[in-house]
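Honest question from a wet-lab person: if I give you the sequences of every part of a complex, can you actually get the arrangement of the whole thing, not just the pieces? Trying it with mine:
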Amino acid sequence: MISNHFARRVQSTKSALCAKFKFEPLNSTTYIKNILKEVKAENYENKEICVNGWINQKPTKLKKDLFQTKIRDNNGSVLTVIGDKAQLKGIQVEDCLQIKGSLRLRSNKQFSAENLEDFEFKLSNLIILNKVDSPVPSYLSTLESPDLIQEQYRFLQLRSSKYANILQTRSKLKNLIRNYLENELNFTEVETPLLFKSTPEGAQEYLVQYEENVANKSNLYYALPQSPQQFKQMLMGSGVSKYYQFAKCFRNETLRKDRQPEFTQLDLEIAFGTGKEVMKVVGDVVNKSWRNYNGKAKPLYSIGLDGKLAVIENESSIKRFDYADVMTRFGSDKPDLRIPIKLINMKEFGAKAGLTNPIFSNFEIIHLPNMIKSEEEAVLLKKWVLNKEHYLDQSRKPIVHVMLKEDDVTFWNEAFAKIANIESPKLVTKSLNLKVGDVIIGSDRESDSFVFENPTPLGKIRNILYQSEEPFLNNYLKENFPKIDTDIVSWVVNFPLFSPKVNATNKRVLGYPNYDTGLVESTHHPFTMCHLAHLPLLAKQIENEVNLRELLFIKSQHYDLIINGIEVGGGSTRIHDYKLQSQIFAKFLKIDVEKQKELFGHLLTVFKMGCPPHSGFAIGWDRFLSIILNEKTIKEVIAFPKNNRGFDVLFGAPSKIEKGD
Amino acid sequence: MISNHFARRVQSTKSALCAKFKFEPLNSTTYIKNILKEVKAENYENKEICVNGWINQKPTKLKKDLFQTKIRDNNGSVLTVIGDKAQLKGIQVEDCLQIKGSLRLRSNKQFSAENLEDFEFKLSNLIILNKVDSPVPSYLSTLESPDLIQEQYRFLQLRSSKYANILQTRSKLKNLIRNYLENELNFTEVETPLLFKSTPEGAQEYLVQYEENVANKSNLYYALPQSPQQFKQMLMGSGVSKYYQFAKCFRNETLRKDRQPEFTQLDLEIAFGTGKEVMKVVGDVVNKSWRNYNGKAKPLYSIGLDGKLAVIENESSIKRFDYADVMTRFGSDKPDLRIPIKLINMKEFGAKAGLTNPIFSNFEIIHLPNMIKSEEEAVLLKKWVLNKEHYLDQSRKPIVHVMLKEDDVTFWNEAFAKIANIESPKLVTKSLNLKVGDVIIGSDRESDSFVFENPTPLGKIRNILYQSEEPFLNNYLKENFPKIDTDIVSWVVNFPLFSPKVNATNKRVLGYPNYDTGLVESTHHPFTMCHLAHLPLLAKQIENEVNLRELLFIKSQHYDLIINGIEVGGGSTRIHDYKLQSQIFAKFLKIDVEKQKELFGHLLTVFKMGCPPHSGFAIGWDRFLSIILNEKTIKEVIAFPKNNRGFDVLFGAPSKIEKGD
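Yes, you can. This is the full assembly:
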């Protein structure tokens, strides 16, 4: 008896189980469009079509025994489906199925293979390949859900057309660039190791245990690389002529805004290559990317010789800014050129700052005419601009001076008395045409050719003003200082080779950068080459007692690519000379020969053995893609991102592992 | 005075330093060939040519004030260079330089732009871009150096034409395959995370500390993935239709032969895809790779319908073997089909094994006629075949019976008395035509349809015989059983879904696999789907008490790709049904619901929410490339491999990091 009973159950299991494993290969709306293009307009109704996809909307009753639902394919495209009760009974959102049937044109529509929304799909057959067994999908489809839920059900999000498009664009764009680099420019893709050696900036590293056992005995660790920098320089010394790679990089700094613990970088390096060559390759990659895949379908702009915006045609039409220029004009080495707000240096009006900190001897302001109409608005403005969230790095706040009455205009300079003496405030009042209702935001900064604080307080304010959700502020900016509605690219070059060293433990004192007297650090990394014209000056510093002012004057062959105020990538011509590299370590970076060997011995060795001159670059791929696709965070362009605590909620990483003893 | 002194030194530094930073962009022999093709044969001598490269050979004196040297470019190509003493004085091996000059045809040679070795390069100008400051390069160039030195100076190795070709082929082949998958087949490349969750097979994982500090407090760890298996299945549930990726994978098992802690795998998965579809894609990828990049310039063979070797034209001409078939015929699920040695099952002669272990009831032999001419050879043969190095896994040795005299022939069966009774040994003697000088190697194994020991002792011996360096053995095999000199590919399919579970701590008893009575494990991984025809049988096992014999009979939809006896890749149709997956975990793999949720909750969740049926595959990319390029180890096709202790000697990873407390 029992065996008979089981036999029946097995039998029913058989048909139920097997059904969901029998299906035809993937068909999508793209495939339907192709079919429609092939058959004649009058014949399409006789064509049986098979589609795989997911239920996008619960079936609704049209009339007796006629139901309508929507099916979504793997491109996120949606098709209207008509069927009877028997076919659509019990169908739920996100059920995965295969349907067969034919297309009918809706009334009053013209036949076009492109507009599938003008058709209805008349069901002849439906197979459920996987029935949803959870309330979550329908819950999510009707609710704007909180972040945590979204993270947990990322796979449901990814089924939409938005993310299908993002993933496909990411893939296609990489392929476009690979073909350009490999086939047109003869680059070789080389995969470099991910189990790397720990480097001195260990705080940002992820450490990997060498042993299998958690109860690690030997204290041996690999580190995941922050970039393949040292590997690619080694490849140059290995005879590779042009290297590239979409490289996985790791930074243990998840708490910083919109960072991911692991990210992708388009990394390249050219042996016997100059900065000029590298910039040409990078500029062309950027231009090609925009022209093929910019979601906003707008070309990329830069600033022409006449100072006006112009569509870039190739790399040579990308504006090159000097570091000193952008620091004084925009208070940042990655200025958002879409923002029209200007910084005014008050030096021309005889202003002298440096009252609190003598190095910070320049006084600069932002003038916002006719901004404030009430006390209330003044409070709101200050609340936003001086919000402590913007100053978590302990940097100093600027002074916001709102002129609500005539005295505020006449004696405007008194608001800034703590940081600057203004010789002739009235000249300023007249020259800038200051009036009641105007706002001046002011701060001190370092002198023009030596601005190392980055961004300066006002450089920061330029961006902060546009991040507010305060309606009066938004309206004011929209009317008076509207952000330019195009993507703008530029180079920043001529960085100082060294910067004053900021104290590692106390980075700020009274809001000012706390420089360790007389010490410097590499502005980018220690492998960056200086300008050839400055090489004699560098040699002088190496051989004599260091003159800090002269040392800081030396410019590097580093170049940054900036789009919309975001540093998309950077690169440089590197040092390939053993002696020069070693001297820079020893004399300026205070790394003695023993320590050099321990940390960078492999590079010094290859420099000693015929490493050619070389230059390279890296583009932050996730960031770059998010700008092209107009997405606010890099999370949007990564299939399975971690959250800002470094957790992958969907897969449950990291997880707890008990240590032995 | 001092400043004058310094000024002079600075001056000299200036010219010396600057010279090596001034150069023209990369030019190689390819570029020279192109120039030669452009200019007319009579004009080439007037053409100034610029080449960057390395000194390949110390200058030698030809006659008074005329020296000859060789320069090697970034493709590893070598050019003969002629110059005077002033130009070539002090030039050393591996000096990196730029030369200018023109080409002269050597006497008695015909002009051809392709044969650069027929030309001499007449120096007009030479710039040393990096002078070698180490004795190592010239030391290495004159010496076959030991492994450690080679590892330490990998970059010098990579400058040779051999490695330039390997790196370039790796890059080009990947690009070929990417274009095929993306442009012809509409695959989407998706990057999946490398900071993954630790999984139960933790012993093979690399653990990554979540915290920055080595003195880890929270016990939170990521694990580096052994493959993107779970990510790609999640992508199928995320609406991606065809996924692929050259994925970085990690296995903490460096002590195994020719393994690397990190390696690359061509990973792919197709939603609504069947095994047939996947196999077609993989077969075509393999065929295309061989046709474009096989270093030996020979096509790939498989076994045709007539049982004979035939060049494969497409995937459908790749032979499909049943698992049971290869295990009984070749004693391995990755048989090297180039080896003509056959295993003879003695069942037909009435042999009965199972004397030591009743499960191992079959007796099989290898017959090597006319092999041994002396006692000495007998000893050498046994020494090699029975060498304990081959049995480090504690597996049992076969019995080697050398027939040196008539009695050894007549009573041959006595040599195997411990493992098998042979009903009519004389029938065997006659049938196999046994003679003095013949060798029989014999062992017992499991019965034909249930061979799980893999390889069997004789399956192992087939390969071991060819790995010896013993001249008499080599000669014998070369004359009597020569290995076929072509690359041979095949599929192995119809694997059992489950295998008897081998005891985790004592894997072998008396050389036999030590199965845990009544327990099974997934033959591949727990996500593998069974044959649809066997689904009712599986359902029966789920619902009733398990019948081990029936359970082990169930075949999976797994498929392995084998080339030259090496498993190049494997794949399967996966389970996409929540209930079936959960039941398999619970009933057969003894993972209760709580534990399932902890380990695989993310996959079970997506299975519950409309995950489509899907099938996929992974090719071990390094291994695949090493076969195509005819390299013996995967180290050869990796730019910076680790050694077999997992150390990167060049970069010095891993390194010691002291733990805080």
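Two things worth pointing out. The mean pLDDT of chain B is 91. The first strand of chain B starts at residue 49 and ends at 63.
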